[in-house]
Amino acid sequence: MTVEVWLYGPLTRYAPAPSKPGYAQLHLSLPDGSAMQDLIRHLGIPQKEKGITFVNGDLTDMPGLQADSDRVLHDGDRIGLMHTRSMWPFQYRFLAKTSPQLEKKMKRGGGGGVFHSSHGRSSTREGR
Amino acid sequence: MAKILRVDIGTESVAFEEVPDKYKFARGRWLTSSLVADEVDPTCHPLGPGNKLVFSPGIVTGTTAPTSARISVGGKSPLTGGIKESNAGAKFATMQARLGIAAIIVQGQPKDSKQYVLAVDKNGARLVAEDGLRGLGTYATTDALIAKYGKVGVCCIGPAGEMRMAMAGICFNDLEDRASRFSGRGGLGAVMGAKGLKAIVVNSRGAPAVPIVDKELFEAGRAKLTKAIRSHDITKPKGGLNTYGTAVLLNILNEAGALPTRNFSRGRFEKAADVAGEAIFEGNKARLGKEVYNHACSPGCIIQCSNTWYAPDGSEMVSCIEYETVWALGPDCEIGDLDVIGRLTWLCNDIGLDTIEAGGTLAVAMEGGVIPFGDKKGAVKLMEEVGKGTPLGHIIGAGAAVTGRVFGVVRVPTVKGQHMPAYEPRVVKGIGVTYATTPMGADHTAGYTIAPEILGVSGKVDSFDVNKAELSRNFQTTTAFIDSSGHCLFIAFPILDFPEGFQGVIDECNGLLGTRWTAEDIGRIGADILARERAFNKTAGFTNADDRLPEFMKYEPLPPHNEVWNVSDAELDAVHGDAAS
Q1: Under an 8 A CB cutoff, do B493 and A89 touch?
Q2: Nearest-CA residue of chain B relative to A12?
Q3: B235-419: what fold?
Q4: Chain B positions in Cβ-Cβ contact with residue A50 (cut-off 8 Å)
Q5: Superfamily of segment(s) B3-202
Q6: Mind listing the pLDDT tens digit for each residue in B26-61?
Q7: Secondary structure of B289-314 in HEC code, one letter for each residue
Q8: Which fold, B432-575?
Q9: How far does B574 lie from chain A, in Å, by closest CA?
């Protein structure tokens, strides 16, 4: 199967071919049944750099949650991968299209998924 | 003691007054909206003698509180016909606060076509008749005023304000004295123009420090908030905002299918990544041979999100290109070229326009067949016509609602006559609720929030299966308070995730004022501000029917999600209950 992958910001360094300023658009062939984690491994992106993620316009991951590792990809999927440096504040994503897996993880994180960055939250707690 | 400076243009008089006891703690939006509600007849013509223009720095503005140099501007909006509060980050705010001036109220109307500059310093205020600035852009105006008055905070209008265009903003100088910070929304620049007031200059030299009742408590609060800002991924040094600016949102909203494109007819733009924050950062690096991180718009900002776009020869083209600006002048018009967007932004700054209304109106004009979508040269020419005040320029300058009516366009994305910002409400439905129900007209800055446990809704809040009305109401009340504190709304990012940051804001205010506010008091103050604003709008003629998104969004599915707007009217009406509309 072939998927369309968009890498943004610092993640462009993992693009196999030269990218445009600030992003890279790839068409990748993957074995049928490949999941998000297979794609991430294929590209060599360290888990800690994977931030906000979209599959076909649905939000599937937020920094630090890895909510879409097992998500199976399909032929023709558009996957958008952001670095942890990107942000999507809550009020600008409130009721946007979100995968059920991510919804579940965000709810479990407290606050019903209202927070801006579970990554920011946990990293500072560890720092205290 | 803090004072109110009242400037009557009709009598060419200035007077300092005591701050009424009921407003002794009110600053920022709290004071501007209260004074407008108290002193302006909601049924008056926004450009007539009955309207007033009010400037107020926030509660902690002028102190060492981080990221707190906001100036709130209020009046009746010529764009919406309702109450308007629009704030900007600028040294003007710090200087006015240090002069102990809680509010500047500009009222009356010039007897003839005279133009004025108001000069304020520690010795008082003077209204000076000044004809030499007439018709000048904001850049030349700012330069001329600095040459004449020295190191001053400048507030001015461009030709659009002088021509009383409903999309005219009020411009402030940034730390490098660029004319680039705007109280952009709602046409307050036209109100200033109708008063014949070209500019205000403030100089706080020799002024005492802003008085603080309990310095220890203030310092403790300041430290808590500073720590929260500096540790959060979005706001820390070299974090998202400092590296990519607010335009970091462009790729996100595009991937989400929620980036309004081609006048809100699609949710994705094929060239979005070419004009996003990441492209600005990398483009500057290529043109300058080094990484450029963003700068502060105003004194004491530690988030520093303002970017600059450099020309191919390495010279500065424009600062700042916000997310909303890139989007309005880019994807919404199907323009995917940063140099053209940079040129259009420069023109908006110079003419003195709200970039959201300006870009959105260009897109509506394109829809109406004035020029084709994606026509770069045509877009620049149309913007220049606005600056020159040609008949077509005046139509565009009146905003999207008027332009849509003139050219017979149905797809006009406005609420209460104000153009929507860069988030598609058919996809991000939560922000649609706020667009519909804020007293300001479609506004993305009306609904910021703080940690839900502080709002007292912990455990109940569920962003996916939620009482939208309750959450939006909470957002709007919180925002009304932050807009009054003097802090930039971007402190909402860290204080949502770190509740101690929010406690820091409360401690700062209590330390400065000697109050004992709790989080509940903050909610009460915010709710009171909103209630005043809505009461003003109700008397001005607004009803629940104005708390709606445009009809086309209900029947036009938006690709790629093919969603329509389907939040019920009953849910929208529940946001403010049975209160005034």
Answers
A1: yes
A2: B278
A3: 1.10.569
A4: none
A5: Aldehyde ferredoxin oxidoreductase, N-terminal domain (3.60.9.10)
A6: 999 999 999 999 999 999 999 999 999 999 999 999
A7: CCCCCCECCCCCCCCCCECCEECCCC
A8: 1.10.599
A9: 17
